[in-house]
Amino acid sequence: NIKLITGLVDVKGPGIMLKMDDAPARQPDIPTDLQIIHEMDIQVILNELKTAGAQAIAINGERIVPMSEQVCAGPTIMINDNRYPVPYIIEAIGNPEALYECIEGNIRVAVMRESNIRVETKKSKEIRIPKFRGYATLDRYISGLEEIGK
Question: Quick one: which H or E segment has residue 96?
């Protein structure tokens, strides 16, 4: 049960899949930085999904766990120390209706679409999310912690 909660096992269930990609062609009337996906865009979507009840989330097959970071690295994003280019595929397990509505009603998603960033959302009866692959090096995430007595 602890492995399930902490993301250390593969899971499946109903949910949604988002595909996000930079604008296909640069438009001179829109600033370039608004036509590409940034880590803050990803973070907003992850927060929305969590608020809407997502039980498990992955980006490009990387399980998102509490210590996961999404960091811009040039035209790519680093997730759990692995580099990924666009498109970004975000999968989330939870109530498909609630997750879909939270994304489709999100202001950040609307702004991205206005800037010609492609965001496609699809409900699914079965989403498969892999376990957190960094489990072999979990010690580096908790170095410096000490257990204290009760």
Answer: helix 96-104
